[in-house]
Design the sequence.
């Protein structure tokens, strides 16, 4: 991959970067998640068509342009297409770069683990225990008959249970305790639940709305969105594939309702980059009231679409000529 191809790609996908003498500086390290400008990539001058190599100045993990883009959520096939056939030979040439020394090992992506279907037989339909605290809590936070299959009650654990299915099979669940023993343990997932791989969905007619938590998704559904919960802002490739598939099939846009903190912003940037790549429109939404969409829904308030002007996702490029790389 040539320098201008890589920079074109970053620019057209709204991925912030800076160029300095001989390097491209990026944020969002795929290893330590540092959102600062810590990832420095260099060009191997002996292999002009190969990927860019470097490391993270914070966690010292090796990063290259392939692992970086895959970490942002771009599908491997597209990253390979961008890099071209020369990408296969990159390990042969990397040893030639002084700055990297003998760091020739690329990180092997972990394959998806086999899914063990969890037992959900101990959980009850909400209608069966409607007077329980957990059922009342679920209703207060937005449960309706439409969610009868995907939201159950753990009566003895006093928890609302969100059931995650994939192609009809239960692949995991997450419990939200109404009165947690430990305030830091409000939620608990089923054993081995691969929460960066699967999503919880509440289908509806509007755009896709991606949220970090299940109740936020439920509120997005009330606001008319086809809600997708990704169980956190650190979205995985399969989750991104799912939102893109829905958006493409139904000709919808992707709204991101993540928290308004740095992790939420990073998650939004990742989704936006991946959607831009697929030419799917995306935007960010925030609650009109409170900290998340559920606060706003409970308060009878709405949802606000953020415009690019509200966002400050850009990192200014240093005004250096590209010759600085050569
Ligand atoms: Zn790092």
Sequence:
């Amino acid at each position: 991959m040539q320098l201008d191809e890589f920079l074109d790609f970053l620019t057209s996908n709204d991925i912030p970067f800076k160029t300095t003498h001989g390097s491209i500086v990026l944020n969002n390290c795929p290893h330590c998640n540092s959102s600062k400008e810590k990832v420095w990539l260099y060009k191997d001058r002996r292999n002009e068509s190969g990927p860019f190599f470097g490391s993270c100045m914070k966690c010292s993990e090796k990063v290259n342009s392939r692992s970086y883009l895959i970490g942002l959520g771009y599908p491997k096939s597209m990253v390979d297409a961008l890099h071209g056939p020369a990408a296969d030979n990159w390990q042969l040439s990397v040893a030639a770069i002084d700055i990297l020394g003998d760091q020739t090992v690329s990180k092997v992506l972990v394959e998806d683990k086999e899914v063990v279907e969890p037992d959900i037989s101990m959980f009850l339909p909400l209608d069966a225990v409607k007077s329980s605290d957990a059922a009342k809590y679920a209703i207060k936070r937005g449960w309706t008959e439409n969610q009868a299959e995907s939201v159950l009650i753990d009566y003895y654990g006093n928890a609302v249970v969100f059931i995650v299915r994939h192609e009809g099979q239960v692949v995991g669940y997450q419990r939200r305790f109404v009165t947690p023993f430990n305030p830091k343990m409000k939620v608990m997932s089923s054993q081995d639940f691969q929460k960066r791989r699967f999503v919880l969905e509440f289908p509806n007619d509007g755009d896709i709305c991606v949220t970090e938590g299940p109740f936020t998704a439920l509120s997005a559904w009330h606001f008319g969105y086809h809600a997708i919960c990704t169980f956190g802002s650190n979205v995985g490739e399969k989750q991104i594939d799912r939102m893109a598939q829905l958006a493409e099939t139904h000709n919808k846009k992707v709204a991101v309702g993540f928290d308004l903190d740095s992790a939420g912003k990073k998650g939004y940037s990742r989704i936006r980059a991946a959607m831009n790549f697929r030419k799917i429109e995306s935007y960010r939404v925030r609650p009109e009231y409170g900290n998340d969409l559920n606060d706003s829904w409970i308060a009878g308030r709405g949802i606000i679409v953020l415009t690019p002007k509200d966002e400050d996702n850009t990192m200014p490029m240093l005004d250096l000529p590209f010759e600085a790389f050569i």
User: Anything to note?
Assistant: The first helix runs from residue 3 to 12.
